[in-house]
Design goal:
Layout: H1 3-12, H2 15-39, H3 46-67, E1 68-71, E2 74-77, H4 91-119, E3 132-138, E4 142-143, H5 148-165, E5 172-173, H6 176-179, H7 189-196, E6 198-209, E7 212-221, E8 227-236, H8 240-254, H9 276-291, H10 296-310, H11 315-330, H12 336-353, H13 358-371, H14 379-390, H15 395-407, H16 411-424, H17 429-437, H18 441-450, H19 456-467, H20 471-484, H21 490-501, H22 505-518, H23 523-537, H24 539-552, H25 560-574, H26 578-588, H27 608-613, H28 617-623, H29 627-642, H30 646-649, H31 652-660, H32 664-677, H33 691-699, H34 711-735
Parallel strand pairs: 3-5, 3-6, 4-6
Antiparallel strand pairs: 1-2, 6-7, 7-8
Helix pairs in contact: 2-3, 2-4, 5-8, 5-9, 9-10, 9-11, 10-11, 11-12, 12-13, 13-14, 13-15, 15-16, 16-17, 17-18, 17-19, 18-19, 19-20, 20-21, 20-34, 21-22, 21-23, 22-23, 23-24, 23-25, 24-25, 24-26, 25-26, 25-33, 26-28, 28-29, 31-32, 32-34
Length: about 750
């Protein structure tokens, strides 16, 4: 049979219809396989076998189409075909041609899109301008099933891999906080690499079925999106330690030479235990630690302690304890004194088993810094030096050391140290917030852009503007933060204090009410209500409320103690009942975070807590006739002040110390400095400035009586009032939409 006749016979036998149907069906089959295989944990490589099967079956389909046809809903054998029969297309042929056209369009469009994506340049406003050549991000591994055990196992494997790879010299590994920001997000690996400034990304999935464990891992070039390496590990569940070690070492081995000059796979860190039960408890502890709530942190402690009981040499679990206790203190679940004890005992247990542990040395440095605040004994800086030599890219160690540097008049070093922390943890909210508090509001902008639902990016900007004395812009940012999280009473409470400062009391009342709805017993809500009572009704009702609040022993939070202590003290002096203040103040020293036992008459001034708060007892002790105790405390305060850094001396407590010592000129100098600089506050560069608040609580209250006859004092008040008048106009302009509000 000639070729032309063969072609005609094929058309008459509808072989081309069969081929078209086969192509459309094969394409649909491949699309289904591409979607279903990952969901069913079938290795992606298996799709290759589907392709092979499709190609091999094509000749069979053509042969079948030559010999058989479908007529009347039945498959019938094709007989001899009349060569004179017409070759016109029928309706099924048009449908098949249409389907082939759709398939062709989809394939071409997909190819063009892929070409466009690979050629797409990095955006010029990229937050990361340059890719660090020897760098990697480990994204959270995906738990294939919905079981909670698989979820914490997948997260834990990712976190342990980050820890293991962080031990490799000269390899920058993005910290867990930033990597986990991408959990559950369908973002192209190239975009993740661009945002984080890394050359490679490690991803994977985890599936557990009875006693079997299937882990897939893929090492991807973040610039091209191609694979350096991909592998599936299908082993017994007990082999998880070997699997993780192998993934970490293979990752380092597969990084190309231009990313890592050497292949130090032998330097990959260990998991820390060979006890499966201890490891499971550790992963559960990490899961609760990540939640970080009042309920989850005690559960995290239980898991870490159980892990240590199962394996006494498991240092990673002890480090988990350190992180948990620190978070507990930040939310006032334990007091500062207990944290100090933990920071001294647990690290020594770690160092017995690992003399080079950077985390243990960091905790000991923090403890020494706290006990010998703010300069440390010399031991703190030595320990931080050793810790950073071992773990130069640990963001939490860098952040702790930056805090020490800031308090010791080394702001530029502190900024550079925080910048280093941001290189490895660029989306860590705490690092971004602290860097912004040092004055660089670009970090606050990054926080807002990267985590738009987190109010911290707006709140920290509000703190910075408050510290600068720009009350109008500060108010706007606190208002936006409140919109982001209306359940947090701190934002409307801060807004209320700003309104009170410029004597907009109706607006302050509305803001206080919002704070009370969000947190009726929260310290800031209580303090804002008492402060507003002082502005509306005067000292007596506000002072009685302040004394009651002082006795209730609420934990310190933002400006709570500034309001409560000042108004309670002034009310006690005004009503000639200093013993009531002394009694209530003793109770406050038993609250979480204050680190005392309620007895301060014989208490040495040994910590920043003593220095910041203990001076307020001096006038009450004098009014109660306990002059010896008052002078002893005052002497301790002076000694602490003389040995402190300039940063600590630049502080409202310097004003009180001078005032209580009879140094009127010194107190006036400090007030002038505060009004000109506006930098003061309990922690000058790390939290909101409360100088404006203190003006109408302390600097213009009963305590300021010795200054009120001085012309300098009158000039200071007039200068301050001019500033407040300007700020009031600016706030009214924003409220009335006469000027553009703070940009979100």
């Amino acid at each position: 049979m000639r070729l032309g006749n063969l072609f005609v016979q094929a058309r008459r036998r509808r072989v081309f219809r069969t081929a078209g149907l086969y192509v459309v069906g094969a394409w649909l089959l491949l699309q289904i396989a591409d979607l279903a295989f990952p969901a069913l944990s079938i290795p992606e490589e298996s799709i290759r076998f589907v392709w092979i099967a499709v190609i091999l079956a094509f000749p069979v389909a053509i042969a079948f189409g030559w010999r058989y046809d479908i007529e009347g809903g039945r498959i019938v054998r094709t007989g001899d075909v009349d060569d004179s029969a017409p070759l016109s297309l029928q309706r099924p042929d048009y449908l098949i041609l249409g389907a082939l056209g759709v398939v062709a369009i989809v394939i071409v469009a997909g190819s063009l899109s892929e070409i466009s994506d690979t050629q797409k340049p990095i955006a010029p406003d990229s937050p990361i301008a340059q890719i660090d050549s020897a760098s990697i991000a480990v994204l959270p591994f995906v738990a294939v099933t919905a079981e909670s055990d698989d979820e914490y196992l997948a997260d834990g494997i990712s976190e342990v891999l980050i820890h293991q790879l962080s031990n490799v010299p000269d390899l920058k590994v993005i910290a867990r906080t930033t990597s986990f920001m991408f959990k559950g997000q369908n973002i192209d690996v190239r975009e993740i690499g661009r945002q984080l400034g890394v050359a490679a990304v490690l991803t994977g999935s985890v599936q557990r079925s009875r006693d079997r464990l299937r882990i897939t891992a893929q090492l991807i070039d973040s610039q091209s999106g191609t694979h350096y390496w991909s592998e599936e590990f299908n082993r017994l569940d007990d082999d998880i330690f070997a699997i993780q070690d192998e993934i970490a070492k293979r990752t380092v081995e597969k990084l190309p030479a231009e990313l890592l000059v050497q292949n130090p796979a032998s330097r990959v860190g260990g998991i820390g235990t060979n006890d499966r039960g201890a490891y499971e408890e550790y992963l559960k502890g990490l899961e609760q630690l990540r939640i970080g709530s009042f309920e989850s942190l005690p559960r995290a402690l239980d898991h870490f302690e159980t892990a240590i009981e199962l394996d006494d040499g498991y240092n990673e679990a002890r480090i988990g304890l350190l992180h948990t206790y620190r978070l507990q203190q930040l939310i006032f679940q334990i007091d500062y004194a207990e944290l100090l004890v933990r920071n001294q005992t647990i690290p020594h247990e770690i160092l017995k088993r690992d003399p080079d542990s950077a985390q243990a040395k960091n905790a000991l440095a923090v403890a020494d810094f706290s006990l010998h605040f703010p300069t440390g004994s010399g031991e703190a800086e030595r320990l931080w030096g050793e810790a950073l030599e071992t773990a130069p890219n640990d963001p939490w160690i860098l952040m702790s050391y930056a805090y020490f540097l800031e308090w010791n008049d080394r702001s530029q070093e502190a900024i550079r140290t925080l910048e280093r922390a941001l290189e490895v943890d660029p989306l860590q909210p705490a690092v971004l917030a602290n860097a912004a508090r040092l004055g660089n509001l670009e970090h606050a902008r990054t926080l807002r852009e990267q985590i738009p639902d987190n109010p911290a990016g707006w709140a920290v900007a509000g703190e910075v503007f408050l510290r600068r004395g720009d009350l109008a812009r500060s108010l706007e940012y606190f208002r936006i933060a409140e919109e982001k999280d209306p359940q947090d009473p701190e934002f409307p409470a801060f807004a209320a204090m700003i309104y009170m400062t410029v004597e907009m009391l109706d607006e302050a009342e509305a803001a206080v009410q919002r704070a009370e709805v969000a947190g009726p017993t929260a310290p800031v809500s209580v303090a804002a209500r008492i402060a507003l009572s002082y502005r509306q009704e005067g000292l007596v009702p506000a002072g009685e409320m302040a004394l009651a609040a002082l006795r209730s022993a609420l934990p310190a939070r933002q400006f709570y103690h500034t309001v409560i202590n000042s108004l309670a003290l002034q009310f006690a002096l005004h009503s000639n009942t200093p013993d009531k203040f002394i009694e209530a103040y003793a109770m406050s020293f038993e609250t979480p975070g204050m680190g005392g036992d309620g007895s301060f008459q014989e208490r040495p001034v040994a910590s920043v807590i003593d220095y910041v708060f203990l001076d307020q007892i001096v006038p009450a002790l004098r009014a109660a006739g306990e002059n010896a105790s008052a002078e002893q405390i005052l002497s301790g305060l002076r000694t602490f002040f003389d040995n402190a850094s300039d940063t600590l001396r630049h502080h409202e407590t310097a004003y009180r110390l001078q005032l209580f010592s009879g140094d009127v000129d010194g107190a006036l100098d400090t007030l002038e400095e505060l009004i000109d600089d506006g930098r003061g506050g309990i922690i000058p560069s790390w939290s909101a400035n409360l100088s404006e608040l203190r003006w109408w609580l302390e600097f213009d209250g009963i305590l300021a009586e010795p200054l009120k006859g001085s012309p300098r004092y009158t000039e200071i008040l007039e200068k301050r009032q001019d500033h407040l008048d300007q700020q009031r106009k600016a706030i009214l302009a924003v409220i009335n939409n006469e000027v553009e509000a703070a940009a979100p």
